[in-house]
Amino acid sequence: MADTEQPELSIERFQALVEAYGGDIERFPRREREGARELLRRDESAQRLVQAARAFDGVLEEARLDVSPSLIDRLSAIPHQHTQRAAVVRLLPFHSSKQTWLAAAAAVLLGLLGGEYLDDEALDTSSADITGLTFADDLFDDLSVQEGDVQ
Amino acid sequence: MPSDDEDDQRLMVRVAAGDANAFRALVVGHTASLLAHATRMLRNPSEAEEVVQEAYVRLWKSAPTYRPEAKLRTFMHGIAHNLCIDRLRARRKHDPDAVEELTARERTSGSIHELELRARVQQELNELPERQRAALSLVHFEELTNIEAAKLLEISVEALESLLSRARRTLRERLANVMEQGG
Asked: Which of A27, A61, B72, B95 could connect to B8 by a Cys-Cys bridge, CB 3.0–4.6 Å?
């Protein structure tokens, strides 16, 4: 819809606007507001329409709802309960969770294959190392740091 | 009171960086409007709070990839509105008669002399058809522009105006006695 002003407004269109948007001309479509104000200044039937609509708007206002402070507090705690989805992805050159998990699987596979060539001492891994491999996010954080360290 | 649009965009930049204080500022600025719309759509305050919470969780999680293609207020209302629609569809799927039973119960719950004005207006709003209720909620109460509301509801501005007119006409008829008593 075009947004240019249309100063001329018929009383029929004015009535249709009042029936849809009520008595507050600021709620009318932007391009028809000036024409509505002009008509309202000079036309008594337009003034009666707006007066009746404003009375009804006042009744509708009774249905406005309040919000409790406890809800605000609960919602404000969301950042402490949820991780932002893209935080890991931003560190890595992958663009979807599918790619991310494929990369994780590839990293684990490479690690296992690489282990075949290590001696027994090197294979004596601690439980902390294994635990680290089970959390993909931690693994990615480690990988991204290593990437940054490579010159 | 809705936040200023430019302030919202600045806050979103901070939220994307993980700033919990900026997130709280958005919560303070937008919750009343989102909650009111969800309550009108679902006619259940508890479910409405759940929807608003889910909308904010989604906003928080996706904040780093958020692109300001629309006002944040419109974006948030879009999330909340779609969550409401999902719940309404699920209700109908599980119990097709649920909405009608609720409406019938409300209709017989008392006369105008027994009910507070606020409750009566809310009751009549609740009984409007879903699309009319959504249109009136977005434009009258949440003060979205006609273009924003039409886009959110995926209809033309002309169709939006038709929904609004029918909603107001129905409410005016049903609340005529309330208006007469109010002078």
From this structure: B72
